[in-house]
Design brief:
The structure is a single chain. With 402 residues, the protein is α/β, with parallel strands linked by helices. The chain has a six-stranded mixed beta sheet with strand order 5-6-7-8-10-9, with helices on both faces. 35% of the residues are buried.
Length: 402
Amino acid sequence: MKRKLFAILLALALCTLLALPALADRGYAFDSANQMDEDQLSSLNDQAEQVFQQTGFAVCFELADDTGGQNIDQFAAQAYGSLCGAADGTMLVLTHQDACLYLSGSAEQVFSEDDKAALIDSMFTHDDLYDVLAAYISEAGEKIARYKAAGGSLTATALSSQGAAAALMQDGAGLLSADQAAVLETKLEDVSQRQQCDVAVVTVDSLEGKTATEYADDFFDSNGYGQGENRDGILLLVAMGDRDWAISTHGYCIDAFTDAGQKYLVSQFKSDLSDGNYAAAFNTFASQCDDFLTHAKNGQPYTSKTLPKAPLSGIWFPIALAVGLLAGFIGTGVMKSDLKTVHRQAAANSYVRAGSMNLSLQQDTFLYNQVTRAAKPQKSDSDSSTHTSSSGESHGGSSGGF
């Protein structure tokens, strides 16, 4: 009897041991190269777990010294199968020499080859390895979430054409807190959805040898911004290393944001940008874009003649009145002081000196009169300057320093 009981208990113990891997937390963050500490890996694993809970897709990564002689694509596929195991998901493999993004299951419908390249390029706008991997999980998760929200029926090409390739708020320079970035992202998504036009904010540390305009245009094009057939959208780029800003417009936004309109738009947020009030500057940009797009769709785009004017403060009325009274008092006082030798007379003719005026001849002679009028040429401010990006797309926009 004791032997039978012992055998039953041993069998139960073995079953429990076999069940432990299934009961353990799913893993997403793996570092065989020992490049990160445990707290960082735990934080990234929690971030990926949240993506999995929301979408059912595993977003994993493996940091490795090398691939052990394997092709990196094969290494990534094997790593995903042995470490992640979910039917749908991604596996990013980083070695000292190379990077590879492997797609499993439905992830192949979410990410095109161009999307994979754009995602990797976007990640490496960050300098710190932790930030690189956090950006990978965040951006991959956002695109997967949009795919799921669309019913999981859109192809990768369709997702890109609808501006789903990248988040509307990308803070590569780390200017905002997590809460500030979340609030701004929500606002940008709300404006973009209502206006059917992407409104995006991007911050970077370096322009990587490009001008601010070139970087903004290329970022817009490569990350799939813009809604509709013409990819309507506007992007604000802020580069902290060079302290430059640039606005890139595309599609309908080229006409909606004229040169004069952009000058006014920048004046509304530039002071906050210069003072380091980044959240305020970006929220002002989003609000102004909403107003510009509404005005353009309801009538005509803003020009210098139709731009909103700030109301005159009430304090200026009493100041103007006081200045006018003071100027009048001083002016009449000076005129009065020049009349000290003149005395008041009873009649007007008393002021005329006898014999001082003798009019002998009066004659008016009119020769000719010719007036030529010509309209003064005026520079139009209702147009938007355009240029061509490196990918051959037509963009509007402007740039400057802060």
